[in-house]
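Q: My labmate handed me this sequence with no annotations at all. I'd like to see what the chain might look like in three dimensions before we decide whether it's worth expressing. Could you predict it?
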Amino acid sequence: MRLSPSDDPAPSAVLPVTVAPRDFPTNRGGLCQKGWTSATVLRATDRITNPLLRGSDGELHPASWDEALDVVAAGIGRVQAEHGRDAVAVFGGGGLTNEKAYALGKFARTVLRTANIDYNGRFCMASAAAGANRAFGADRGLPFPLADLGGADAVLLLGSNLAETMPPSVQHLAGVRSRGGLIVVDPRRSATAALTGEPGDAVGQRAGVPDDGRSPGRLVPSPGAGPVGDQGVHLQPVPGTDLVVLLALLHVVVTEGLADAEFLDARTAGFDDVRRSVMVWWPERAETVCGVPADRLRYVARLLAAASPARGGSGAYVLTGRGVEQSSQGTATVTAAINLALALGLPGRVGSGYGAITGQGNGQGGREHGQKADQLPGYRKIDEPAARAHVAAVWGVDPATIPGPGMPAVTLLRSLGERPGPGGAGTTYADDGRPRALLVHGSNVVVSAPDADQVAANLRALDLLVVCDLVPSETALLADVVLPVTQWAEEEGTMTSLEGRVIRRRRAVDAPGEARSELWILAELARRLGSDVSFPTDPAAVFDELARASAGGVADYSGLSHARLDADERDGGPGLYWPVPSAEHPGTPRTFLDRFATPDGRARMVVVDHVGPSDDVRSDAPLYLVTGRVLQHYQSGAQTRRVPELDRLVPEPFVELHPVLGLRLGVGDGDRARLTTRRGEIEAVARWTDRIRPDTVFMPFHWSGEGSVNRVTTDATDPISGMPEFKVCAVDVRRAPDTQEVGA
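A: Here is what I predict for the chain of 744 residues:
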């Protein structure tokens, strides 16, 4: 998007701006509702414009920057003196610029010298990253330009509702839709699933419903593959069984001789073990678990194979999103998707491939430069001696002073505060090593984290909570210190797109009041804490340092600078994709064309198998709860709920359920529904829709309070990626009693 000051009179100290779409390769001049209205947040009526300190009365009061930073520095010093360096933790965000994410990781490891730093990207891209790193040796969401999708004959999209989360990207699916090759896997008939052209209420046409809505059990599929749409196919599996769908598709590819044998022999390792492992997932068996008819599974496998280059097709893509990744078997599911793509010979070829749809504004760049628990800049592993030595030289520190890997986000949030350790109530904090202070940047964990009530309780138990934010989010309202920060239109920097394209962010207006960049805040805190490590505050200088730190890493930015990015854009260039290892290098729009980033250049195929959700249906929780987004809101809603146009369109949380289920439960359209899981209960307005399976209910996660769905989601995590299982848990649903019933 492009920004420019408006001629309208300013309603506040902030100069209004207008937002206009930019004709960029990914959006081609399109913007979603959130983009069109984004300038409203710049002048939100409750924008934080001064530091806030919690007083003896328990309330937050305005303070000067000197007062606020002195309190933060003193609190950090006190906690670390009493409990050790790891007693101070840092939580970052996938919306921070590359420069701020880099500086935050550097601050944690050189000033605080704490191992405990992670970020909300652990909720977003961790399983995709773990799967891609294991298979390819590198993680770039899309190792090809998004526009490449337009030439494919087939696109398999698992767990992503692009039409609502990234509407401008849908235009890149026009070609595959015209060829009938869009395949969407989702338990809901989402706006994206509807693009396949399949008839409505697809579940009702192809599957039975449970005899007893209060008894556990899966839908029993009816015979026959059912109709397919004129633009593609929509598969509606039982929640938590996407892995079974993928295993069955690969079974068909293998047993029907549809695999690309030449590619597998030349460019992969591990296929024989994977081939043997999928023999047990013939489509009829898979159907009994995932609820997708066997004939439809065969149809989709053959459609993908026909589109593959090995069989004369124009190309095929396998893409994953949060719906399949936010799972206790998320890495396994991503691995199965990669195995399928490799068996068809797709990755590393122009016009085909595997990719993951990034979820946050800087979801790609935010995980590359050091705010992730196990990484240093350039996507280096923090426990590799050579990586530590290289980065330490850039930072001017002894490699031995850089901490090792820390706790992933969910474990970190679970650990906060003072509670009895393994030795019982008499165990002191020093015995169990829990963090007692937390610095939060660019994240609203009280709404966005799983089992959110417990997270809020843990935050309250801290000795010190410092939150950098632009509005009083639910997390900021719990803080001891709130520091006002600049946002997108008020700062310089860079972001990295889901394709690995590094994009400039430019300042259009001044920040209101006393709001400052995190770069300045970190530099000031470093000085107050007595560090002699340099923290430049000029974003261009920070980027130059980031580029040096990334040199030779997987995500190599060493050939980039703000000046080069500006010149490329000014000259109408195509943009620059990492790796860019020198100033003369043109960038890498498509990776893996010659070799994968593994020691021997071969992609690794890894055996995985289905285990199922950690919190599966049972007698007291017989339905599946799935969560997701709506078009009008974003993440925790802290910003979009402050945009009147968006708030009017979707002002409150809701729960979607099938009319058959609603009738069985006695929950009418428009009634208030009460949802209960092992973590607690919430309430929201019921909406009847035939777009969802009759064994499943859906809630968006953008709200706090009694309708905050993450208060009841499970904090079980993937054992490899540490990603929480947001997308499925067992739930009981009933009509909430009205006030008169409660009073009676």
